[in-house]
Amino acid sequence: MAQRILVVEDEPAIAESVAYALRRDGFDAVTAGDVEAAGQAVDGAQLILLDLMLPDGSGFDLIHRWRHAGIETPIIVLSSRDDESDRIAALESGADDYVTKPFSPREVVARVRAVLRRSQQASEAALAAEPSLRVDEGTRRAFIDGLELELTRVEFDLLKNMLIEPGRVYTRARLIDSVWGDGFAISDRTVDSHIKSLRRKVAEAGGDPGLIETVRGVGYRIALAEPGGRASSP
């Protein structure tokens, strides 16, 4: 069965060109032109393409509403806003990627496939570096010794991506690409700031902040657990 993609876009020409490209590539594409129609069509969608400027509300409101309701369907924002602050706000709200207008429908299809692929790979199993740390992609929840961590979307995605291969060094550039997506002007300091916050929350929950190691001049890695159950030291 073809994967269902919901295109939320109030400009008919854009909505139909994107839907046509998706259908030609084997997807089942449906369109919605406003917030109300999007709310009615979201059930069953495997991914959402969402314009931020809609005639009866904001795409940001939809993201907040869906995420608050526990709907974790991947969202790719389509927007004419190209400021870094808008991109970061959308991603922090729960979007998975951000594409600026004007764009090629073929590029959008490629982004759809990339986001679906990442989502599928990450959701195949819960990830763990050691018994005390567990990340469940299906529910987007992380635990230290059974205690849930209160993480932002970016913090969760950073942790999830590094847990795919504990012990492997993840460069800042790779983390930016995996968490924020291609084409984002995110600085290394932004990554460092989120990692610092992530370590603090791990420590506050009783975990070892050394679990996330800094590899100077390169990036970060999840420390492999020693036989005693603690993260190894660099």
What does this structure look like?
The chain is of the alpha/beta class and 234 residues long. It has two domains: 4-122, Response regulator (Rossmann fold, 3-Layer(aba) Sandwich); 125-222, Arc Repressor Mutant, subunit A. The chain is 41% helix and 23% strand. The protein has helices at residues 12-24, 35-41, 59-68, 84-93, 105-123, 153-163, 172-179, 188-204; strands at 4-8, 28-32, 47-51, 53-54, 57-58, 75-79, 97-100, 127-130, 133-136, 141-144, 147-149, 170-171, 212-215, 219-222. A hairpin with a 2-residue loop joins strand 8 and strand 9 (133-136). Helix 1 packs across helix 5 (105-123) and helix 6 (153-163) crosses helix 8 (188-204). It starts with a strand and ends in a 12-residue tail after the last strand.
Tell me briefly what this model is.
This protein is of the alpha/beta class and 234 residues long.
**Fraction of helical residues:** 40-55%
Structural class: alpha/beta
Total number of beta strands: 14
- The gyration radius over C-alpha positions equals 19 Å
Note the topology.
Elements: E1 4-8, H1 12-24, E2 28-32, H2 35-41, E3 47-51, E4 53-54, E5 57-58, H3 59-68, E6 75-79, H4 84-93, E7 97-100, H5 105-123, E8 127-130, E9 133-136, E10 141-144, E11 147-149, H6 153-163, E12 170-171, H7 172-179, H8 188-204, E13 212-215, E14 219-222
Helix pairs in contact: 1-5, 6-8
